[in-house]
């Protein structure tokens, strides 16, 4: 949304100013995002991105998005969970944060990415930013990451390198910015 405001932050998370999300991407200003990796036991649920998204047709976290200006990270996780998978009731485990910087589709994205593992007992409903849910066991995911990396978005590889490194083939490790403690 062109009018969405985000907090522009320093690398340690201090708010410096508010700006339009489009301006943050035009200038490469650091701002907060969230990603929720949906798990249930040994199963993972991903979404396939719509054709108008940054990673069209690729598998990414079931929940993800920008933290609005003045919004807490948890509030953004809950809002995005409702919008993207129809889940009002989620449980979450914070995995950590890392800076994810890339230039994609003319945008200079510089995100302080907060990564969560989430679950929900709600009936999942696909949001408008995705075309399908894809369920994989951990074993199937490991094989798919090795044999078909082209199925997955760069944002997933970034998060997995930092927080699920044991699932990634060695060829896809050490490609992204450092994890923040």
Please give the structural blueprint:
Layout: E1 5-9, E2 15-20, H1 21-27, E3 31-40, E4 43-49, E5 59-61, E6 63-66, H2 73-85, E7 91-104, E8 107-119, E9 130-137, H3 138-147, H4 154-163, E10 179-180
Parallel strand pairs: 3-8
Antiparallel strand pairs: 1-2, 3-4, 3-6, 4-5, 4-9, 7-8, 7-10
Question: Which structural traits does this protein have?
Answer:
Nucleoside Triphosphate Pyrophosphohydrolase, 181 residues, globular, 40% strand, alpha+beta, disordered C terminus, two-stranded antiparallel ribbon, 4 helices
Explained architecture:
The protein is of the alpha+beta class. The protein has a single domain, classed as Nucleoside Triphosphate Pyrophosphohydrolase. The chain has four helices and ten strands; from the N terminus they run E-E-H-E-E-E-E-H-E-E-E-H-H-E. The protein is globular. 31% of the residues are buried. The C terminus is likely disordered.
Topology-level CATH name: Nucleoside Triphosphate Pyrophosphohydrolase
Radius of gyration: 16 Å
Overall structural class, as computed from helix and strand content, comes to alpha+beta
**What is the CATH superfamily label?**
Nucleoside Triphosphate Pyrophosphohydrolase
Mean pLDDT: 91
As a percent range, the share of strand residues is 35-45%
């Amino acid at each position: 949304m062109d009018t969405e405001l985000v907090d522009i932050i320093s690398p340690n998370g201090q708010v410096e100013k508010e700006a339009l999300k489009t301006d943050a991407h035009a200038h490469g200003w650091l701002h907060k995002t969230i990603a929720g990796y949906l798990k249930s036991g040994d199963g993972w649920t991903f979404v396939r991105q719509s054709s108008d998204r940054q990673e069209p047709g690729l598998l990414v976290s079931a929940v993800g998005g920008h933290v609005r200006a003045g919004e807490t990270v948890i509030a953004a996780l809950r809002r995005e969970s409702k919008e993207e998978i129809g889940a009002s009731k989620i449980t979450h485990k914070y995995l950590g944060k890392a800076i994810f910087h890339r230039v994609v589709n003319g945008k200079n994205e510089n995100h302080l990415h907060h990564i969560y593992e989430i679950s929900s007992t709600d009936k999942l409903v696909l949001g408008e930013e995705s075309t399908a849910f894809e369920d994989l066991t951990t074993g199937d995911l490991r094989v798919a990451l090795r044999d078909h990396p082209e199925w997955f978005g760069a944002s997933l590889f970034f998060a997995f390198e930092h927080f699920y490194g044991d699932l990634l083939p060695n060829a896809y490790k050490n490609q992204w910015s450092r994890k923040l403690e």
